[in-house]
Amino acid sequence: MASEKLWAGRTRGRPERAADDFNSSISIDCRMFRQDIAGSAAHAAMLARQGIISQDEYEKIKSGLEGILTDLEAGRLEIDQEAEDIHMFVEAELTRRIGETGKKLHTARSRNDQVALDLRMYLRDEADGIISLIKQLMGAILRQAEANLDVIMPGYTHLQRAQPIVFAHHMLAYAAMLERDIDRICDAVKRMNLSPLGSCALAGTTHDADRELTAELLGFSGITKNSIDGVSDRDFCLELMSALSILMMHLSRLAEELILWSSWEFGFVELDDGYTTGSSIMPQKKNPDMAELVRGKTGRVYGNLVSLLTTMKGLPLAYNKDMQEDKKEVFESVDTVRACLSIMEPMIATMKVNRERMHAAAQEGFINATDLADYLTKRGLPFRSAYRTVGEIVAYAMKNQKVLETLTLEEYKSFCDLFEADLYSEIDLSNCVAKRVSAGGTGPDSVAAQLKWLREYLGK
């Protein structure tokens, strides 16, 4: 039989052990102890300011909370896993330390608004950490791009060689994705950064509480407008989890390319030994396990989002115990994203680029065919006619096991008399890249502008 709970009164406060274990969330929400203590300290300060508790009582509560925090961080105090949740643990420990005064802390609040507060504060802090990790990954991308400005590779559509690009341009596409990820997280935090404290169970409080004061003390930009919504809202979790899911999609796409590029068939990059594994039976293998795990863990983050959406979709207002299930999903998503970013950054930073293999691949696959068609359009042939002509030339070259660069001028003229000797300069891969002058493209000036943007964004 479990010990009596702080909420005993209407019931005997002693649920059966199995039910007590089933109800407990301490193993999951214990990580919010800093936020819980900070929220309690701000709440106590407000109670004193409003004359709801005395200044002496506030000082005792403040000192007690500071002592609990210090002891937890120093390892002198362990969180009691028999406690129902982190909120009950802190309150019980405070009362044990300072006596009856500790029981006054919960005046004018409920666990409903308390947990909503802690969760907003915790995720706000975690969002800052995730943004920092994203920027570190962007820094690794920047360094790889700067080191490989002139490395020509095939760009792909449908996983078929399409047009020549530089490796820097390809990598900078991921930097653009990651910038959007940061924007989405910041946008989610903007709506997250409202204090629900003072909503109490659902209807507010009869005490003259100052919600704006506690919001200010805790660094919130304001307060939630409606007390019912204040305790029952988990949009802020869902928004963050949605942003993290999109982030993981981007990391998974990058991981997929690393997996492809490091294969024997591509050979574009070599991942550092520290981020690969071997085979238990095949001694020649070098497996991109870390990249594969990033790709695999993406599904877990997606699943957490769907799980919480499903939990929330049928809940009547206001708080329901179902909502205790929010933390496991959102915490796991946060942990997974942090782990993936932490492994992806050094994996990109230590990756070796095989420029010769990339250039060789770019010389095959007729990826300069569009430039050949553009050559004809500049001489007056309508693009659709030029497209068909070049398509016939490609078919001819393939049949004769040639590439565009090795066809003779006579062969070209047999298809169209607009061809002259200067066509070879037009289809040279370096020139094909250099001619891409439009903003955002793979041309040197455009890539330089993208690098400049990324350096400024990262403060480099």
How many beta strands in the DSSP annotation? 6
Biggest sheet statistics = 2 strands, antiparallel
Radius of gyration: 30 Å
* Overall CATH class of the largest domain: Mainly Alpha
Strand fraction equals under 5%
Derived structural class? mainly alpha
CATH-scheme architecture of the largest domain? Up-down Bundle
- Beginning-to-end CA distance, first to last residue: 60 Å
Mean pLDDT: 94
General shape:
elongated
Kindly report the CATH topology of the largest domain.
Fumarase C, Chain A, domain 2
Spatial strand order of the main sheet: 1-2
Low-confidence stretches: none
The succession of helices and strands, N to C, reads: HHHHHHEEHEHEHHEHHEHHHHHHH
What level of helicity do the residues show? 55-70%
Q: What is the CATH superfamily label of the largest domain?
A: Fumarase/aspartase (Central domain)
Describe the structure.
With 460 residues, the protein is mostly helical. It has 3 domains: 17-107, Fumarase C, Chain B, domain 1, CATH 1.10.275.10; 112-357, Fumarase C, Chain A, domain 2 (Up-down Bundle), CATH 1.20.200; 361-458, Orthogonal Bundle (Ribonucleotide Reductase Protein R1, domain 1), CATH 1.10.40.30. The protein has 19 helices and 6 strands. It has helices at 17-23, 26-29, 33-49, 55-74, 86-98, 111-147, 167-192, 211-217, 227-232, 235-261, 289-312, 326-349, 355-362, 369-377, 383-399, 409-413, 423-426, 429-434, 444-458; strands spanning 152-157, 160-166, 194-195, 222-223, 269-270, 352-353. The longest helix is centred in the first third of the chain and has 37 residues, at 111-147. The protein starts with 16 loop residues before the first helix and ends with a helix.
